[in-house]
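Sample intake sheet
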Amino acid sequence: MFNEVYDVIVVGGGHAGSEAAASAANMGSKTLLITMNLQNIAQMSCNPAMGGIAKGQIVREIDALGGYSGIVSDTSAIQFKMLNKSKGPAMWSPRVQSDRMRFAEDWRLLLEQTKNLDFYQEMVSGLIVENGKVCGVTTSLGVKIKSKTVVLTNGTFLNGLIHIGDKNFGGGRAGERAATGITEQLVNLGFESGRMKTGTPPRVDGRSLDFSKMVEQPGDVNPEKFSYLDTTKPLTHQRSCHMSYTSLKVHDLLREGFDRSPMFNGRIKSLGPRYCPSIEDKINRFADKDRHQLFVEPEGWNTVEYYINGFSTSLPEDVQFKALRSVVGFENVKFFRPGYAIEYDYFPPTQLKHTLETKLVDGLFFAGQINGTTGYEEAASQGLMAGINAALQVQEREAFILKRDEAYIGVLVDDLITKGTEEPYRMFTSRAEYRTLLRQDNADIRLTPKGFDLGLASEKRLRRMEEKHGAAEKFVQFFRETSVTPDEINPVLEAKNSAAIRQQDKMFKMFARPNISIDDMKQVASVSEYIEANNLDGEVIEQTEIQVKYSGYIAKEKNNADKLTRLENIKIPVNFDYSKLQSMSLEAREKLTKIQPVTISQASRISGVSPSDISVLLVFMGR
């Protein structure tokens, strides 16, 4: 049945698996995607949305490298918002509300049109490992399929256990069975495993809600989009979300079920996402708050199904129903299905290299929730990186690793393999020390050349990026070189309560003032004439404004990043024996031995390794 040897087998068809399969196949590797249900490829198991704080930057980075998540987010979007616009551009984060069914369909169709990619519907129950190297997989029907590399993207399916009140049953998500066999084999191979938890809210019938009692949450007036390609277009009309609130009465009704809650009666022992807690966890941890926000999100263009963001729960279904009916606008609510919690196996990611290949088994890669992360975007980015590196390994090319100053994806991977995680990891802008460099607006400038070199990003995409970047650079130079007279600029400055100038000066200095925007500068004739003569679009103008107004911050972060690069360039020998460094703390020796950092810079980021420990290491290496 499967006589050929694949270059890459991807196990699991979620967001990580889909990106892994697409990247490996697009790089020319013969790839097989195996998943338990081909109808559920790239299923949005939880909220029907992509992007958000820091997550939107990740989607832009995936797109810039040549992945598919940004394209599918655009083609299936029903609403677009740029979050944090009131803050600096390093914090701006795009987010779309998605049509759940169209999202999965668009992903499926894109994958079916991808050369070098085969599909098979079955459960993988084990790996074929010979002499410390993966050689393929075995399915539950006993089919053996050979491959040179394997990418595991099992999501919440590894020994998944669903909880609703005092009931629990095996499953990877509602209506789908759990995957068994892989965890046990990996543990036998020497891997350390653990358990994590996530949850999802009830889905309700929008026809039973009274939206007039809620606060409308419309999309942006001038929506943008995710993908840098011109093949997708911004939305011309959008669907609104709505917002309501819980109350003390709702909290009291929920507390009535706490004795039957698996969160509090000991049935669930694993940790859930700290930054996306269940409603029962919220009212228990924040007992002083008399209400919590609930976002009422449509699941698509035409469906009446709604997702109640902020009401994740594993309480008994009767308690969920009774409490939700006491929320304003939900007095007559009808359930499509109750919320539930799910426990699943994961493998602490300190067992991985920067490529996401495991340290114990050659050619075996992990991506997504198997590494302890939460969120579609985090999973998709890991899938992309694992697929890329699996293909590169087969092609005997150099590994692809993104540094912390190059991408949020680089921060994510480095955090996971260097620090590990004991609770579901979620990306935030605060995790990136170079977030002024890693903005959502410049992901293409940062990463498209790398995607092109890999064979993922097309030449058309590269040329489009170069044109945008070149036009913005020239426009910045225009402001640096062009002078403006007091007569031209003072009316603009005075209108913004900004100090007038007495003599001719460079426009750059005026534009760099905090309260002067590009719209203000357009009032100067030479600026509006330049824009019109060069036919500059919104992306170029926005990029120019950021480069002018944040030039000092950007230069400072680049300088700091350059200092970090010097430490990144100091390599630590493979399998270095830290036991001989007796002047180093015992904790540092243990952590360094376990994680085996590749560079001094990575070693410095390991929890428990102090600056003095790094000094000892540098002295020993003659630095």
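Comment: The first helix runs from residue 15 to 26. The first strand starts at residue 6 and ends at 11.
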